[in-house]
Amino acid sequence: MATLMLLQSSPITRQAVTGPLGVMCLRALYSTDGPRPLKTTNLSAMKRGTGGRSSFNGIVATVFGCTGFVGRYVCNKLGKSGTQMILPYRGDHGEAIRLKVTGDLGQVLFHFFHLKDEDSIREAVKYSNVVINLIGREFETKNFTFNDVHVDGARAIARISREAGVDRLIHLSALNASPHPEPLVLKEGSKFLKSKYYGELAVREEFPNATIIRPSDIYGQEDRFLRYYAHIWRRQFRSMPLWHKGEKTIKQPVFVSDVAQGIINAIRDPETAGKVYQAVGPKRYLLSELVDWFHRVMRKDEKWWGYWRYDLRYDPTFMMKVKLTEMVCPGNPVGELHSERVEREYVTDIVEAGVPTLEDLGVQLTTMESQVPWELRPYRAALYYDAELHEFEEPAPPKAIEAKVY
Question: Are residues 87 and 93 in contact, defined by beta-carbon separation less than 8 angstroms?
Fold first, then answer.
């Protein structure tokens, strides 16, 4: 007589089978069985996996602004470590559904919300122990002003998160946020930076232990920095207008994946609660050298294109084009060209002394020299031309300048 052992769960039961084959099996749990009672609803006390995409690491995170540029990177990194995600979205679900694959089956949940509807915000955060606010606007629209998004909206999310008992709140602000930004192109200065400053104050009032991250210009796939200068609408024929030819502006751009990793590391480290971090790249550059380098990466041969820079202050036709773009396309300006963007691109990045950076969060920063050629590859002239080996010289990277601590 043969005996087949099926190793399942106890208790052991015998099943009488006519014939030469007898089967000894262990009773399994089926979908018709009642659910196992939970001893506690505390997520930190539940069983956890090894930290991979198919495990649960004990974190349930609500990511506001998940469909944005930074949000997609943050969701991907959260899903890789086994985080359950609640992703609020507004408008077309097609923007959010692509994030379904960032986590395993059942780990990514979507929730429709509106920033001015507090009940929908409360529904989105009531099961979470971590809330990440990445909501931001580059320009004002008829439905949302800068204060609506960066101040009132941030305050509502922080207050409701505190009332719901959320443990950690990560708020994305902006470098150079100031109550009185220096005016350059616009008479009143950057409304974006001003609203970001008061947004930080609002978050601190409602959620004192919130972690605030201030990023500089962020570049990566589908960004608004590299592709802003690569777009044909930003140029004037074969020239590039810049404020003081870009020779008085210093930038320290940061890679989007580094910003997302800094947010993940801040969630894992309880010591980051209540602190402010500056998300800047490893090197500082003159804007003029950066733009020249972008052009050389895209065109290979600067003489063939006939490219040059000139002072924006002496060309009123460029600002007329900016105003025309805002008038014709108020909801989606062509090439991201609008007055607020032109104003902010000439603000020098100031890294404050004593304020920690991404390196203090354990992030290994990515250099522009290693990443920008890949990001600008779709804009390269004669993209499908098979160049012979060493036919074109590789463009020299821009010279980094020494960082100054203010």
Answer: no
Helices (H), 132-225: 146, 154-163, 191-206
201-228 confidence digits (pLDDT tens): 999 999 999 999 999 999 999 899 999 9
Round to whole Å and give the CA distance between 60 and 43: 8
Least confident of 83-97, 128-142, 294-308, 318-332: 294-308
User: What predicted TM-score, i.e. pTM, was given to this entire model?
Assistant: 0.83
Q: Name the residue with tokens 């208790």.
A: 11
pLDDT digits (tens, 9 = 90+) for 49-107: 666 788 888 899 999 999 999 999 999 999 999 999 999 999 888 889 999 999 998 89
Q: Which two tokens stand for residue 166?
A: 């959320």
State whether residue 272 is helix, strand or coil.
helix
Q: Does residue 60 sit in helix, strand or coil?
A: strand
As a whole number of angstroms, the distance between CA 180 and CA 178 comes to: 5
Higher pLDDT, 16 or 406: 406
Residue listed under structure tokens 């262990």: 26
Residue pair 307/327 in contact (Cβ under 8 Å)? The answer is no
Exposed, middle or buried, 264 (CB in 10 Å: 0-12/13-18/19+)?
A: buried
CA separation for the pair 77, 95 (Å, rounded):
18
Helix/strand/coil for 27 = coil
DSSP 40-56: ---GGGS---SSSTTS-
| Cα–Cα distance, 37 to 54 (Å, whole number) | 23
